[in-house]
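Help needed: design a sequence for this.
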């Protein structure tokens, strides 16, 4: 049974080769991505085992998702094929309108994964894992996906399995800040580690400063709260102490989509092998930067050797 398990949608990513508005893109690259799967692949590159609970369509894209995940060593025995709905897809517009940033356009409504429900949750799979990884994306996909995420969370907590949660608020899925706040709230109680960012904190705790929101979040029970701030680095709040590390200034950004997942995988693997929090932040920032420098979410997820090579060139990075 895998050490890390998750539930979520894996999609086909169609990413524009050229920067700029998608309507002018002539070439799109086909890849496979999805926040939870990105983290699982990141963890396998760092020596762990992982597995996903999901659904794909009975189509060429579903077969591609399965082939890529299997090729990366992710257990797909809990991914089922839905003959009645397609595999979701999304497009990535790069460097426009804000240079250095990407915009995503989803075509996932009614997709196979969005039709998941409580029956897609394998409780034994969760109970025998080391940690369950959840994000705020899956509960936003549909009522069934919300209930499936909730069931997975409850099973993990009852079984003494660690829960790792990334707030990952996607406004295109929740549609209003209120719905996002209410939908994500259920998942903030119980995780041992919560990943978030300053924009999500503003949605979850309106009117509070980042510091106040982090304290509020950790008062709900998380041992470690990590705030990812992109080009401003990352901070972690643990046992009443705040740790900060600045981001690495890389020469060129290709696509920042997926960098947060790369950060999470490296941070987690580092913390779990007993590194101090500052070191885990350093690995997280390094993995995030390495991912942003390359198009695609999973292609540039680093091994330990890759991380050490990067840090060998860049040093530990700014203190933050
Ligand atoms: O974190 C990266 C993800 O946002 C991207 O892969 C697409 O899973 C995705 C989503 O739901 O936004």
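Sure. Designed sequence:
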């Amino acid at each position: 049974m895998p050490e890390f398990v998750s539930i979520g949608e894996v999609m086909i990513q169609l990413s524009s080769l050229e920067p700029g508005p998608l309507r002018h893109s002539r070439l799109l690259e086909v890849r496979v991505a999805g926040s939870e799967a990105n983290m699982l692949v990141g963890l396998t590159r760092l020596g762990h085992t992982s597995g996903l609970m999901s659904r794909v369509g009975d189509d060429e894209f579903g077969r591609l998702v399965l082939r890529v995940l299997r090729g990366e060593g992710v257990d797909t025995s809990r991914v089922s094929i839905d003959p009645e709905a397609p595999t979701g897809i999304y497009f990535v517009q790069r460097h426009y309108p804000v240079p250095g940033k990407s915009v995503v356009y989803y075509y996932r409504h009614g997709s196979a994964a969005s039709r998941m429900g409580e029956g897609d949750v394998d409780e034994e799979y969760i109970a025998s894992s080391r940690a369950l990884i959840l994000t705020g994306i899956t509960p936003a996909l549909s009522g069934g996906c919300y209930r499936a995420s909730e069931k997975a969370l409850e099973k993990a907590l009852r079984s003494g399995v660690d829960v790792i949660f990334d707030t990952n608020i996607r406004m295109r899925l929740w549609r209003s800040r209120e719905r996002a706040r209410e939908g994500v709230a259920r998942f903030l109680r119980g995780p041992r580690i919560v990943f978030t960012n300053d924009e999500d904190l503003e949605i979850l705790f309106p009117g509070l400063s980042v510091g106040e929101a982090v304290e509020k979040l950790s008062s709900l029970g998380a041992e470690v709260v990590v705030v990812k701030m992109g080009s401003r680095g990352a901070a972690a709040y643990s046992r009443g102490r705040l740790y900060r590390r600045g981001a690495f200034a890389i020469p060129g950004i290709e696509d920042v989509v997926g960098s947060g997942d790369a950060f999470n995988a490296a941070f987690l693997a580092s913390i779990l092998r007993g590194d101090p929090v500052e070191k885990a932040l350093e690995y997280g920032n390094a993995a995030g930067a390495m991912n942003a420098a390359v198009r695609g979410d999973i292609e540039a997820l680093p091994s330990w050797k890759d991380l050490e090579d990067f840090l060998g060139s860049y040093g530990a990075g700014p203190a933050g």
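The mean pLDDT is 97.
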